[in-house]
Amino acid sequence: MTQEHHWHAYAYTGRSYPESAIRRGEAPADYPPIEIKDWLARPRAQVRGAFAAVDDAVAWLEGELTQNPPVDEQHFPLWDRLQRSRETLCLASGNDVVHGYYSKAGQYVSRALISCPRPATGQPCPYGMS
After folding, report:
1. CA–CA separation, 34 and 54 (whole Å)
2. Which of 58, 72, 107, 115 is 20 to 30 A removed from 84 (C-alpha atoms)?
3. How confident is the model at residue 130 (pLDDT cuts 50, 70, 90)?
4. What is the pTM of this model?
5. How far apart are CA 115 and CA 104, in angstroms?
6. CB neighbours of 38 closer than 8 A, spacing ≥ 6?
7. Full DSSP string of 79-108
8. Residue 46 gets which letter from DSSP?
9. Is the Cβ–Cβ distance between 110 and 12 less than 8 Å?
10. What region does 114 belong to: left with phi over 0, alpha with psi -120 to 50, or beta?
């Protein structure tokens, strides 16, 4: 059975990584993983959505980034971020989009669209979505 390609959406808003986590190269369980490959190892409860269409994935991302405007938005406008995200997702299946930045509210914001399944590694959808 072939699984249909889709993206899992993940969201985190809070403090940045503790210095000790950066030195060890691992994030606490309630923080975003340090390596992109580790997103799909997160519990299903952390998935904020699953999207088979690029437009739906980018619409979710737009809502998230609009609610948490980046501190550097003047230099890298939201529209540019969304366009680059759309282009990346459209290149070919298997492309991820991860945004990590400080918001104008002073919090660390991480939003990720992680491609699934991962045929290059043989990893099926860990949540059984197809």
Report:
1. 24
2. 107
3. low
4. 0.87
5. 28
6. none
7. HHHHHHHHHHHHH-TT--EEEEEEBTTS-E
8. G
9. yes
10. beta
